[in-house]
Amino acid sequence: MLLPYYNIELIEAGLDEAGRGCYAGPVYAAAVIMPQSFSHPLLRDSKTLTAAQRETMRAIIEKEALCYAVASVNNIIIDKINILQASYKAMHLATSRLSTSPALLLVDGNRFLPYKKLPHVCIVKGDNKYNAIAAAGILAKTYRDEHMLSLHKRYPHYGWDSNKGYGTAMHREAIAERGLCRYHRKSYKIYAI
Questions:
Q1: Neighbouring-strand partners of residue 106
Q2: pTM here?
Q3: Which residues are bridge partners to 69 per DSSP?
Q4: 54: number of CA atoms within 13 Å, CB side?
Q5: What is the DSSP string of 167-189?
């Protein structure tokens, strides 16, 4: 069972990202403010859910959240500023788009670049501990997967409909045969099999 809040007296936004380890495509991040009373048995780390469960939870989160925002940073910017900075940038963008200003940010992971003067707490494996972070992880993952499916239609040979840009054997084989495309992260040490 996830915890509904970190500090009951503050409006908290959970932050999480998706796609940091991918060879291709943008990194996505979401910021979500959930009601303190919210509870759902499927709300947990997005990696432990099936694609269908994630889509179910996405619809519930979008309906029940007090507010949410999703942002992305593309592979060109990732190559310019590095993936860690790009992840922070995506989280900052998502936070800036919230319709309600949070008083505290709950960030999945062990590092974060402060956003303006907002206090934050880094929580390792936070997407398996706090509602708002788990909700953010689900939104970031589902929005990114949706984007990679749209890119797959233009570049079907890389298998992004199944690998979502991660460096699977099939993806590396396709890179060996066809080379990199405009959506690959050129700063990554991408290698073929």
A1: 14, 121
A2: 0.96
A3: 31
A4: 19
A5: --HHHHHHHHHH---TTB-TTS-
pLDDT at 189: 81
Q: What is the pLDDT of residues 14-29, one digit of tens each?
A: 999 999 999 999 999 9
Retrieve residue 121's tokens: 């707490």
Whether 124 has a pLDDT exceeding 70, the answer reads yes
- Backbone CA torsion sign across 181, 185, 187, 190: negative
The CB density around residue 64, as the number of other CB atoms within 10 Å, is: 16
d(CA 173, CA 117): 46
Tokens of 154: 């233009």
pLDDT, position 133: 98
Handedness of CA 46, 50, 55, 57 (dihedral sign): negative
Nearest residue to 95 via CA among 32, 5, 18, 8: 32
The single-letter DSSP state of residue 157 is G
Distance CA(107)–CA(112), nearest Å, equals: 7
CA 176 to chain centre: 28
For every residue of 113-151, which 3-state class applies, written as one string? CCCCCCCEEEECCHHHCEHHHHHHHHHHHHHHHHHHHHH
